């Protein structure tokens, strides 16, 4: 049986060109980038070339790029780096109810350390309302952290407008750009962010490499201690082969807008052929590769398993939350009931997906949902089947 991958928001396969660069660096560059001898300087050259390639991808200066182990560490460095910088002063942080767990968990830790954190609500499409942000901001606000695009629904937040409001009260703005950096044309200067997180494995690089954009002149409290790596912002010997591959992926990164017609074809086909289906966040601006669809009367996890048995890999939500029994916090914040949230499935397209695969997936979804409804004790209206 052939298998087809529609879970690119969880991770992407390593691109062939990136793999070649990774293996070549592993073989040819053996030095520590902090060493001053020939081997160390060869590693340093590779590292700084990758830094330039990543910087060019997001529109900043190379010195503003701090390498990390991925998006989670980048989020943590931004939030703790700013949130703890004020020392013992009471800190006021604003985030949203639909953030990735890497942001929400970090903010919860700040609360345990004495900070006040406000979690902004979102509308029915999952968009942060600017009026809510205006009401939450105050002169003592330290940091606002709002994601660029949601990993479950693909909904894009109005970061430029959020930036203007945030800076009007003297606060800093961090945005989790893991689902957009390397996939869409992104300029951190145009967005107006002070900090921006990206992760290599979301666009063809290996897992375990990422970066945090830190605006020039902004000082952070480190969260890891040891050497003076990354200009004293992130201690630890750099993963030169992985970061070289990260840079290569950034230099090859494509505009994922090309996947919008395939995503739209998938949505239209499912909605037309599967009764009781609806797109979550469909009324908002979204990244072009993602759709989140709920299927009344069927558990999303059951659909994921059924599709996997038919050769299609999809997700019932964030891969970082897989195995959790709770319904998606993102969908609940958008106003869905727990049952509706549990009946939702995420489809995320990427390189390699074709029209033929999409059409096959539509047929597989139709057949899987119909089968699951037949064997369910409840029908699509939520009523008991007649005896």
> pLDDT below 50 for ≥5 consecutive residues: which ranges?
380-387
CATH topology of the largest domain: Aspartate Aminotransferase, domain 2
General form: globular
> Per DSSP, what share of the residues sits in E-state strands of 2 or more residues?
5-15%
Please describe the biggest sheet, giving its number of strands, its sense, and whether it closes into a barrel: 7 strands, mixed
Q: Could you give the order of strands across the largest sheet? A: 2-8-7-6-5-3-4
What class, by secondary structure content?
alpha/beta
Q: Determine Rg (CA atoms, Å).
A: 22 Å
* Mean of residue pLDDT values: 93
In the CATH classification, which architecture of the largest domain applies? 3-Layer(aba) Sandwich
SSE string, helices as H and strands as E: EHHEHEHEHEHEHEEHHHEEHEHHEH
Measured distance between first and last alpha carbons: 37 Å
Count helical runs.
14
Tally of strands: 12
CATH class of the largest domain: Alpha Beta
Approximate helicity band: 25-40%
Relevant CATH superfamily of the largest domain? Type I PLP-dependent aspartate aminotransferase-like (Major domain)
Number of domains: 2
């Amino acid at each position: 049986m052939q298998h087809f991958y529609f879970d690119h928001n969880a991770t992407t396969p390593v691109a062939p060109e990136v793999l070649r660069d990774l293996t070549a660096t592993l073989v040819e560059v053996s030095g520590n980038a902090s060493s001053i001898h020939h081997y160390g300087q060869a590693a340093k050259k590779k590292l700084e070339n990758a830094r330039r390639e990543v910087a060019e991808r997001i529109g900043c200066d190379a010195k503003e790029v701090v390498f990390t182990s991925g998006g989670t560490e980048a989020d943590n460095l931004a939030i703790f780096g700013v949130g703890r910088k004020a020392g013992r002063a009471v800190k006021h942080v604003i985030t949203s109810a639909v953030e990735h767990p890497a942001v929400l968990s970090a903010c919860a830790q700040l609360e345990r350390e004495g900070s006040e954190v406000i979690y902004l609500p979102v509308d029915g499409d999952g968009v942060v309302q600017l009026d809510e942000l205006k009401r939450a901001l105050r002169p003592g606000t330290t940091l606002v952290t709002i994601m660029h695009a949601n990993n479950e629904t693909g909904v894009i937040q109005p970061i430029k407008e959020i930036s203007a409001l945030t800076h009007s009260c003297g606060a800093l703005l961090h945005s989790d750009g893991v689902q957009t950096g390397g996939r869409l044309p992104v300029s951190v200067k145009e967005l107006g962010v002070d900090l921006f997180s990206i992760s290599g494995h979301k666009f063809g690089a290996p897992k375990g490499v990422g970066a945090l954009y830190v605006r020039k002149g902004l000082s952070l409290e480190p969260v890891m201690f040891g050497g003076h790596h990354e200009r004293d912002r992130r201690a630890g010997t750099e993963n030169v082969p992985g970061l070289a591959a990260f840079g290569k992926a950034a230099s090859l990164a494509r505009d994922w807008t090309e996947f919008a017609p395939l995503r739209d074809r998938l949505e239209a086909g499912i909605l037309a052929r599967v009764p009781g289906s609806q797109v979550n966040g469909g009324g908002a601006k979204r990244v072009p590769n993602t759709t989140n669809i709920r299927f009344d009367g069927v558990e999303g996890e059951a659909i994921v398993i059924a599709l996997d048995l038919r050769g299609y890999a999809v997700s019932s939500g964030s891969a970082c939350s897989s195995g959790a029994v709770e319904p998606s916090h993102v969908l609940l914040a958008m106003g869905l009931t727990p049952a509706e949230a549990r009946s939702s499935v995420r489809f995320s397209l990427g390189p390699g997906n074709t029209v033929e695969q999409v059409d096959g997936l539509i047929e597989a979804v139709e057949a899987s949902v119909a089968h699951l409804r037949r064997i369910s004790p409840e029908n699509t209206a939520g009523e008991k089947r007649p005896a």
